[in-house]
Structure formats: structure tokens, C-alpha cells
Amino acid sequence: MQTRWPPRTRTRRSSAGTTEATRWIGAAARHWATDVGGQWAVVDTADTLLGRVGIRGVDLSDGCAELGYWTVAAARGRGVATLAVDRVAAWLLDLGFHRLEIEHAVSNVSSCRVAHRARFSLEGTRHSAALHADGWHDMHVHTRFADLGPGPAHDSPR
Q1: What's this model's pTM, rounded to 2 decimal places?
Q2: In the β-sheet with 121-132, what is the strand arrangement from edge to edge?
Q3: pLDDT of amino acid 151
Q4: Which end of the chain has fewer surrounding CB within 10 Å, N or C?
Q5: Closest by alpha carbon to 67, among 94, 97, 43?
Q6: Where are the alpha helices (DSSP H) in 56-144?
Q7: Whole-angstrom Cα distance, residue 55 to residue 32?
């Protein structure tokens, strides 16, 4: 069985109202202001929302952060997530970060593909590491340490 998004995330977001969205935006602003995370919308040239890329778990003393991302259904399969993740990763590494991670459910084949195409190496599997609505999931951990030259396998969204 292939799961595109963890059920717990899908459930939480689908029931979100204006109040929860306002709290989420406020938390994102606090995370940015305190150097612990950041969120960016991924848009096309007409400012149509294609997805989001974010960082969390920022540790400035060790130069580490975790990247997360999602795309709207219409943007999937076009290289949008790959390009966004690659550009944010390159920017963070240029700023002096040492270690970047992406973690996703082993069953999320699409996220595995994005991580690989954005030049993150599969480091290993954390067994029974994340509790979702349907139970415990094994999680892949991908890492990227240094800028690897020109862009990802797909330089621009198709």
C-alpha cells in the first residue's frame, strides 16, 4: 500500500479552520523570529499556490535542520517539490549549514523520489518512529551535506 501523506496530517489539516490557520501562521512567524524554523509558499509566476517547503528543528550551533514539503495535487509529478527542496537546501548550505535532513514514511514513495532528485542520500530507516492515525510507521532519513553543483535532476517545473 502506498500512502501519499500520513493520515494524521491529512486529518488534522482537513479539519483546520480559520482559527487554526491563524495559529499556524503565528507559530511560523515566531519560529522564523527565533531562528528555529521557516515556511515558504511555492508559487508559479501567476502566484498560484503549488505547495510549501519549510525547515524545522533548526540547530544553529550544529548547523542542522530538517526540511519538509508538500504540493497541491495539480502540481504533483512536475518537479515542483524537487526544485523547491533543492533551492532551499542549496541556500541553507550556502549560509553555512552542515547537515540537512528529510524524513518521510517508508511507504511514501513520492517523497523518497523527491529527496533523491533533490540530491539527498538515503541514510537509513528509523523503525516504528512516527505515530500516525493508522499506527506506527518506519521512517526513511535522507541527508545532504554539501552543495553538489548544478540543480536537481529536473531544473524547472514542467
Answers
A1: 0.78
A2: 38-43, 49-59, 64-71, 99-105, 135-144, 121-132
A3: 56
A4: N
A5: 97
A6: 80-95, 109-117
A7: 10
